[in-house]
Each structure stands twice: as structure tokens, then as C-alpha cells.
Amino acid sequence: MPNSLPQRSRTMPGQGKATPNRSLERGVAILRAFRAGSSMLGNSEIAERTGLSRSTVSRLTQTLVETGMLDYIPQARAYRLGVPVLSMAHAMRDSSQVLKVATPMMVDVAMRHRINVGLAVADGDEMVYLESFRYNRRQSLRTVVTGQRIPMALTSLGRAHLSTLSPDDFARMMASFASKGGGRGWRELRKAIEAAVESVHRHGYCAASWQPQVVALATPMRFDGYAVHVLNVSVSGQQDTAAAQSALAGPLMSLAAAIEHGMRGVQW
Q: Where does the source fall among the domains of life (predicted)?
């Protein structure tokens, strides 16, 4: 299925109205087609994931190989991400003042309260983990790593992010969710998203349980010069949502306040 995401606003801070470069946008779409578990992709798979024509994919993958962003494996007639992608990811993490401020605080809260703590930002209709510290007395059913993507519509992280959108952007995201995974369950999902957004506006956080025996709370944070960051805490076990909210809301909101305080005066 083509990865047709709602378009970002064309007006970027400090740029005025930018004229989009379609070739660049398509090249980025090709790079985004590579995910964990999809180490190698051929032109047909890339075309399917991006919605681009085979001829366009063939032309752009050749350019991406020449620039080192993709490696071509002749034996498999497929591509994989090149080393420069990793170096850019490292540069991104190293330049983030938010991570430098938040990381030691997140570790402290995870260990002190024996809970999981994560930090993520939005990319299209998914959330991408920047950092995650998992505290589990038993083996977790899943492992969260830096760069992992999770669905926006189903998670506390994603719903907290949705609460920060303008009415028009929120409507576009909801229309995208409905078109991709609507069906019979869309009405219930929409109600859950709207309730979560209302919870953020009223209480500062929202709760969700999209994985078995995992309840998570999340709150959005805004910093000058950065996209909205969303902080979450979660517990694994038999606790119901109400009990988990009672236990997690205090640590979550205190941690968010501490990070926001730590970011004051930081040169980004």
C-alpha cells in the first residue's frame, strides 16, 4: 500500500512559503521506506511502499547509490541503507539539547519508580522513539530501541502529539487514519483519540493500553527550536488503566516539568 501521509505545512519557521522540491521529497520517501526488519528492498518493493512509479524509483535509487545513501547488492538485486545514514542519525542525537537534558532525568525516574520511560517525536502518522529506558522485573514482551516506530493513532505517545495540532492539521490526520485503517472499528478508535486529546487539554496527559498488559501515560512538551517532544511512562503487569494512571501521573508530570525547567536558557 502506498505510504501516502498527510502533507506537512509548506510554511516552515524562518523560511516563509517554501517551494517544494519534488525530486528531493521523493528521494526522502525512498529512504523512509526502509524499516527495521526490511534490511533490503528492491525497486518493486520500494515502489509499492512509496506509491512512486518503477521508473521514478529506478532513477532515484541510482542517484542515492551514487551519493552513498544506498548500497546496491547485485546478488539480491536490492538496496540497503548506506553508512552515511547512520552517521547522520548519530549527528542528530548528538546535537539534541533535549536529549542531553532529558536522558539523565529519564534514567533516574525509571530506576527510582521502577517504570519504563520514553521520549518520542512524530514522523508522518507514526511516533519515533528518541530514547527509551525499560525497567522490568521480568522479561518484557517487546524491546523498544532508539529509532523504533509505533503507530500514532493507537498509542498514548501519538495521541498526546495529536493534542498539539491545529484543528485543520488534526482533521487531516484523522482523515488519514480513517482512510488507512477505518472500517468497522474506526468509530471507536476516533472516540478513543478524541477522549485522549481532551484528557491532555484537561489533565496534561493521556493514557492508552495498546499492547497486552502494558499501560502508558504520555504528555507533550514544547521547546524553542525543536519539534514537539512527547514523554511517556508505562508499566507492565496486571494493573488496570485507572490504577496505572493513579500511580504514573505524578512521576510523568514531575519529570516533564523538570525537563522543561532544565531546557530554559539552553542554547539550541
A: Bacteria
Residues 42, 29: Cα–Cα separation, whole Å: 14
Query: Per the structure block, which three cell numbers stand in for 13?
Result: 519557521
- Residues (pLDDT < 70) of the chain are 1-18, 136-144, 181-183, 237-239, 267-268
Cell 533516574 sits at which residue?
A: 108
Percentage of the chain modeled with pLDDT above 70? 87
Closest residue by Cα to residue 119 from 245, 39, 223, 11: 223
Pairing relation of β-strands 16-17 and 70-73? Answer: unpaired
From the CB of residue 114, how many other CB atoms can be counted at a distance below 10 Å? 11
For residue 62, which amino acid is it? Q
Q: How many CA atoms are closer than 13 Å to the CA of 4, on its beta-carbon side?
A: 12
Distance of alpha carbon 181 from alpha carbon 1, whole angstroms: 12
Query: Do the Cβ atoms of 26 and 46 come closer than 8 Å?
Result: no
Three-state SS string over 132-168 comes to: EECCCCCCCCCCCCCCCEEECCCCHHHHHHHCCCCHH
Q: How far is CA 188 from the centre of its chain?
A: 23
Judge residue 66's burial from the number of C-beta atoms within 10 Å of its C-beta, 0-12 exposed, 13-18 middle, 19 or more buried. exposed
**Grid cell listed for 114:** 521502577
pLDDT tens for 11-64 read 444 555 668 888 999 999 999 999 877 789 999 999 999 999 999 999 999 999
Contacts of residue 25, defined as CB under 8 A and 6 or more positions apart, other chains included, come to none
Pairwise CA distance, residues 72 & 84, whole Å: 14
Burial of residue 215 (number of CB atoms within 10 Å: 0-12, 13-18, 19+):
buried
Q: What pLDDT sits at residue 6? A: 42
Which residue, among 148, 129, 131, 117, has the nearest Cα to 235 in the 3D structure? 117
